[in-house]
Design a protein that fits this description.
homodimer, 6% strand, two-stranded antiparallel sheet, 54% helix, DNA-binding, mainly alpha
DNA sequence: TATTGTTATACTCTATAACTATA
DNA sequence: TATAGTTATAGAGTATAACAATA
């Protein structure tokens, strides 16, 4: 059997084509690099055309899929602190995309729901965004793309307990 | 053949266990969710013990693997703007971890190299960080972890051309 | 005139602290 | 006393603009 020489893998950084050297196996680094692409796609499709930032868009979509969810639950799901959620909800409400409603049994909580306009926007943007990502990530086959999504989801489940945010 | 009913997949957000609904297939969302875990690992291991932020650590490691690299090349590789690189290099130089050296043939450029101390630190931290990520991402098998790294690397290569940064 | 790098500055994002209302 | 949410504020992080030196 011939044994391969112990040369470092020739993985290179995007664009500048530097050696990734020790960074290659570090997941946090590869996440950031891949994030450059998805941020480009999001900004070009959602941010520039509508007045929705990443956190706002994600929050709106989660509200759409979880009618009546509370701000605290969303903060935990997104890994951010409650004050940020309050600001995002303010903006989304001002845009007429979701509603706040005090809880019946517990008047401290606020149940969030999308408006008809918010629901329609979410449905459209989610569809467009998925398509735009597939088009942009031409380096991945459809099967690889799907596997990447599932592996990331599985990785995210390793998140440690956090009281109300990161 | 029995056909599965078209129910939505039961994927749930980490911790809060909300329905991910439309966000599930969006790569940018899954990247952000997985990033919560890797940020926790990085902060606990590198940031809290040494005075290195994520960009500084990545830059130092790339310099280690590409001796003589210039600031402009690093900005392109990392997807950030040159002024940020200048600030990071300032700090790393002040910490005695790398050196600047004017180019012989072109005095505009500065060639960066790690000091002995910088090189030793990179070697140690990279090793520790890889180990810490593997330990933290207990939801992934070693094979899945390795595949995730490779798929992310492949995805990152889809990055569009950018003049000097994002 | 174009390019590298720096300085100064502004904007975005997210966190902490302090507060109100409710339980 | 503990919890949900808000307001006000501060700190990271990263961008743009203007500049200096060199090609």
């Amino acid at each position: 059997m011939t044994k391969k020489p112990p040369v470092a893998a020739p993985e290179r950084t995007p664009y500048a084509r530097l050696s990734e050297a020790g960074m290659h196996p570090i997941l946090g680094y590869q996440l950031a690099q891949a994030g450059v692409v998805t941020t480009q796609v999001f900004d070009g499709l959602v941010r520039s055309r509508h007045e929705l930032r990443r956190g706002e868009f994600t929050l709106l979509t989660l509200v759409h899929g979880n009618p009546g969810v509370t701000a605290r639950q969303l903060a935990r799901a997104l890994g951010v602190k409650p004050p940020n959620v309050a600001l995002w909800v303010d903006r989304l409400q001002a845009l007429g995309l979701l509603t706040r409603e005090r809880g019946d049994s517990d008047a401290r909580v606020q149940h969030l729901r999308t408006t008809a306009r918010g629901a329609a926007l979410v449905d459209r943007l989610v569809k467009d965004l998925v398509a735009a990502e597939r088009a942009a990530l031409s380096t991945l086959s459809p099967a690889e793309h799907a596997m990447l999504v599932e592996l990331l989801h599985k990785a995210a489940l390793a998140r440690g307990r956090m009281d109300s945010g990161p």
